[in-house]
Amino acid sequence: MQAVQEATALPKQSIELPEDLAQFIEAWKTKPGNLIMVLHKVQGHYGYVPRDVAFEVAARLDVPLAKIYGVITFYHFFKLRKPGKHQIAVCMGTACYLKGGEDIIKEFETIVGVGLNQTTTDGLFSLEAVRCIGCCGLAPVLTVDGEVFGRVTKDQLAGIVAKYRGK
Questions:
Q1: Are residues 16 and 69 in the same domain?
Q2: Residue 87: how many CB atoms within 10 A of its CB?
Q3: What is the C-alpha radius of gyration for the chain, rounded to an integer number of angstroms?
Q4: By C-alpha distance, which of 64, 69, 67, 91 is closest to 80?
Q5: Which residue range forms the structural domain that includes residue 62?
Q6: 3-state secondary structure of 147
Q7: How many Cα atoms sit within 13 Å of 11 on the Cβ side?
Q8: Are residues 157 and 90 in the same domain?
Q9: Could you read off the pLDDT tens digit of each residue along the chain, which spans 167 residues?
């Protein structure tokens, strides 16, 4: 029970948001659909939605924290943990799944040393499965930082990772 209380307890004081983010929240405060727009802006700034910022957004928009976390956990775009410098997304849509998407994920887990929705200890890579990238004709497909790799095989993955290790 104590862990639940600690996780849901409001911070004692508000945090200082970057000026552009604070202004954006204020500009969107009364507009319909503001929560998703604000969360997009937050994630664009931090790369994920930090816990303390979620509390601050709840206070500034006067919405329950549960609503914010409901949106964050519903849409796979939003992240609760800081992603790696290079984000690997493996498509698990029907075509990609049938053409070996699951094998691609398992091989990536071996190569980078983390499981799905995790980040390497050096912060260089994070790995996630996504529903569809929209390149079904190129299945199996993955992206690294938005760069699309189609018709990938397990043998190509080490080379793809090596390409980003030096960046």
A1: yes
A2: 18
A3: 18
A4: 69
A5: 2-74
A6: strand
A7: 15
A8: yes
A9: 444 444 455 554 678 899 999 999 999 999 998 999 999 999 999 999 999 999 999 999 999 999 999 999 998 789 999 999 999 999 999 999 999 999 999 999 999 999 999 999 999 999 999 989 999 999 999 999 999 999 999 999 999 999 999 87
